Amino acid sequence: MLPRFSTFVFSIALCVACSSVLAQKKAGQMMIMQLKNDIGYLASDELEGRRTGTVGEGIAADYIVRRYKELGISPFKGQYIYPFHFVYGKDLSMATQLRLNGMLLQLGKDAFPLPFSPNKSVTGDLIPEANEQGGIWLVPLYKDLEESNNAHFEAEKFMYDRTRELEKKGAAGVIFYDGFGGKWAPSFNTQSTFESTGIPAIFLSNDAYQKHIVGTSSKGGIPVSMEIVIGKTERNGHNIAALIDNGAKYTVIVGAHYDHLGYGEDGNSLFANAVKEHQIHHGADDNASGTAAVLQVAAWVKNNHKKAKNFNYLFLNFSGEELGLFGSKAFVKEHKIDSTQYAYMINMDMVGRLNDSTHALELGGVGTSPSWSELAGMAGKEFKIVIDSSGQGPSDHTSFYNAGLPVLFLFTLQHHDYHKPTDLAERINYAGEAQIIKYVEQIIAKEDKANVKPAYTQTKQKSPGATPFKVTLGIMPDYSYQEGGVRIDGVSDNRPAAKAGLKQGDVIIKLGPIEVKSMQSYMEALGKFKPGDKTEVIFMRNGKQMTLPIELMGK
User: Fold this and answer.
1) Helix (H/G/I), strand (E/B), else coil: 36
2) Which of 49, 270, 382, 452 is most deeply buried (CB count within 10 A of its CB)?
3) Dmax over Cα atoms in the chain, in whole Å?
4) Would you place residue 296 in the very low, low, confident or very high pLDDT band (cuts 50, 70, 90)?
5) What is the DSSP annotation of 492-515?
6) What is residue 2's predicted lDDT score, i.e. its pLDDT?
7) Phi, psi dihedrals of residue 409, rounded to the nearest 5°
């Protein structure tokens, strides 16, 4: 038995410990309550899916700014909201038209201009494919009934390849037709990656073909007038930035995107009838969860100055992520983000669905700094850490990794509701998300205590899939760039591009004898070389055309 005095001291210590446990429990409950409020509102019907450039995105931005103000966190460089403008895709002008035998066909019902067509007007007689001469060629889309019923037939690719072939044969234009009523559902593909051909091409529906071609009484060639006008789809988005300035040399970035899919209008929904049924894609996990998590981390940094005092802390909420990381790329470019001022970046994207059985949490970017080697061990029993070493991935940390910053990416893995209207607030694992937030706070506290800027390490470039070429330049292309050529987003050390002297921001316009107009012709150019081949790369840098010798290397 303990002496009375020792028993008294022990009792006080026990009370203090119990009080601390109760305080932590209460703090955890308050965090979960705030997460429910933030995610519930951001994923509500009122915001209509937070599609970039919509009223819903603007309401979400205002809400996030209001939350930063409530937390007492200042705007970055005098403002919270940073608008950005970007070119998203192609847009078919109302000036486009097709006339057969003098009759104007209805676009979107009878005639479908193809997105790889140039802005051009042509007139002439419609001639059969077998007649190898100039004029406007009439070409079947399908060779037989079986092919027309093949749901996997790549119609747009077939028509693109055929148009290029016929252009070389002297055709002035091409009209493809469906003579069977096939499976392919025609539409103007605003996100087509095929480069522009030199001649216009239009697709005719089966009904239009039967009426205007088969049913015509014309004995000679059918007179055709084609005019195609294709413009650019331009959008605006809004990034949000708030700063805790500790007067430190380096700044830590904690970020997440807050945009989502709206009603699925951009074609990135995985719900089969998204546009037809006009259902809101709520995006509770993707990425209201990450947005709410950033706000919680911001609150913790604000209230724990002793644990987060040796760096400044910049909190970023991006838009345009779902369309191709447009917001984070714009912010990096506008504010010249690099390692001279910034220490590292933490990105949280879909952190709301921690599985209670597997406890799987992906920790990406682990290979981007030696400092990250101990982080998996810090997770304890709460998580089963799935490590991804790469600094590149399908989220905003990629933009900062390419700018030379060590990055970390937290993600609770995909689920059945991903990019569907069923990604709802009531399906979030709030207790699990709270655990992830505490884990991020531990990481920040560890790095702040060390008070050393983490070293940056380049990681192996992720390949988006199998490619038909055997060589690489060692660059990360900017897939959002649509101004002609391939813009470099990142350059890997000791690879051909780096050895030749290419830099981030350079735009490759020619590789050897092959002109590079976009990613398509860039990959075609790579396919012409083998490891060890030497050639020249022509590129634009700050508005000036430059040429450098380059030696290709195996992948």
Assistant:
1) helix
2) 49
3) 117
4) very high
5) -TTSHHHHHT--TT-EEEEETTEE
6) 41
7) -130, 120
Confidence (pLDDT) at 483: 81
Mean pLDDT throughout 13-23? 54
3-state SS assignment for residue 402: coil
DSSP designation for 154? -
- SS3 per-residue string spanning 113-132: ECCCCCCEEEEEEEEECCCC
DSSP per-residue string spanning 225-244: EEEE-EEEEEEEEEEEEEEE
Report which of 395, 389, 386, 349 is spatially closest to residue 369, judged by C-alpha positions.
389
- pTM for the whole structure: 0.79
Non-local CB neighbours of 369 within 8 Å, separated by 6+ positions: 344, 406, 454, 455, 456, 457
Q: Give the β-pairing of 136-140 and 173-177.
A: parallel
Rg of the chain taking only CA atoms, in angstroms? 28
Place of tokens 């709301």: 352
Encoded tokens for 506:
């350079």
Integer Cα distance of 449 and 524 in angstroms: 50
* Sign for the pseudo-dihedral over CA of 417, 422, 426, 430: positive
How is residue 350 annotated by DSSP? S
Sequence-distant (≥ 6) Cβ neighbours of residue 188 within 8 angstroms? 90, 92, 108, 112, 113, 115
Cα separation, 512 vs 499, whole angstroms: 17
pLDDT digits 0-9 by tens, 519-528: 888 988 898 9
pLDDT of 469 above 70: no
- Residue range 100-124: average pLDDT? 92
Contact 411, 440 (CB under 8 A): no
Burial class from Cβ neighbours inside 10 Å (0-12, 13-18, 19+) for residue 22 reads exposed
- CA neighbor of 285 nearest in space, from 418, 436, 383, 441: 418
Q: Are 329 and 478 in contact (CB under 8 A)?
A: yes
pLDDT digits (tens, 9 = 90+) for 328-355: 999 999 999 999 999 999 999 999 999 9
Q: Alpha helices of 218-314 — where are they, by DSSP H?
A: 274-277, 290-303
Instruction: Fill in the amino acid letter for 279.
Output: Q
Strand pairing of 544-551 and 553-554?
Answer: unpaired
Angular region, 261: left φ>0, alpha ψ -120 to 50, beta rest: alpha
**What is the C-alpha separation between 374 and 232, in angstroms, rounded?**
47
Residue 234 pLDDT exceeds 70: yes
